[in-house]
Description:
It contains one helix and five strands. It has one helix at residues 6-19, and strands at residues 30-34, 39-42, 53-58, 61-70, 74-78. It has a five-stranded antiparallel β-sheet with strand order 1-2-5-4-3, with no helix packed on it.
Amino acid sequence: MTPDLPLSRLAAFARRQSVAPKPLTGIGGTVSDVSRSAIAVRGLSRDARLGDAVAIHAQGSQCLAEIIRVADAQVLVKP
């Protein structure tokens, strides 16, 4: 059994994509607060897991971040 570590999950994802590639899908949320250390996002709590990657789109650019906290109303992400 493979441990549920981020690198193991990424390797499993890569294997699945090489066998039967599927388009990546996304669930949208809204940035509700920004601090020096984290960004609060509403609308993702129901489907988010700790450690998931998110893409933040703003002004024609994209920033990748990791979910570091999941609460009922929002998630916190760290770029």
